[in-house]
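Much of what follows relies on a compact textual record of a protein's fold. The record below shows the convention in full:
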Amino acid sequence: MANPFLLPISYLYKLGVTFRHRLFDWGILKQEKFEVPVICIGNITVGGTGKTPMAEMVIAYMSQRHRIALISRGYGRKTKGYIEVRADAHYRQVGDEPLQIKRKFPDTVVVVCERRVEGIRRLLQEHPDVDLIIMDDGFQHRYVEPKVNVVMIDATRPVQHDRMLPAGSLRDTLDQLHRANYFIVTKCPENMAPIDRRILRKVLIQAAYQRVYFTRFESFRPQPLFPEEVDLDLNYGQEVIALSGVGNPGPFVDGLKGSYRVVEDVCLDDHHVYKVKDINLLDGLLKAHPQAVVIMTEKDAVKLIHPEKIPAEVRRRLYYLPINISFIDDSETDFLQKLENDVREN
């Protein structure tokens, strides 16, 4: 139940969000549409809904036919303005998620810029061969008018029962869902009932052209962060320390519990900035559990890739868990092909 003292603040926040949307609807605040199609991957809630794995999926598929660039605000960075991300950059300069994507797709142009319109203009000037742009977390950034809006929905936090910030996790109003072309419902349970799908479709779909896809996260075998230093085998049922600095760590931790014995659960804030005290904490926990290893999210892994700041005994026991989005009912091909058709209609 929401804190009743936060409800008035939530109401004021909702009024502010609604008024801002009206300014765009009335044309007082201007949108810009680009000749190069823009796919926006966003959500209407705070916390992890799977935007980054979805962006990675779209990049992997679309890069077969297009020269792709990704633009992000670069949340959590200590810099300002336009920066093109290099694979050897520090996450404090470019943000954790853009760095993760650049390291996975080194041939993809990745830029960060809080002013997305200006960022896209410069991106196209410096990379005129780019013919498709993915805008990360831009559903509320209405200064850019995308060709396609993909909105991520967390099945574990139904939007119809949620409240606006700060009483809930909604950062946008439900009436804005009409702007979405596709809804990707993530973190669906294995045995999701057909009636639950029908209810979500009824809540989400507000126009005939909108489509809803149901997905879950699929984990792979944990990978060592420093493979050249690892001398411990990772076995089923082994003791592990879960480390996560993401918006909704529950599914990550629950997934680990299905294969390992989680002896410690270190949950940090989303976009957490790692400091010496965090490394010391891990060092202490590993000494307390001599047979354990640390398994972290991919988002946390890009923040700990500088070995000189981590003791050797800790480095050899650090792993990260790669994940991707798995579509239910083998609907992934249908989604990606329809997305490609939308882009080609430009």
In short: The chain has two domains: 30-218+326-344, 221-321.
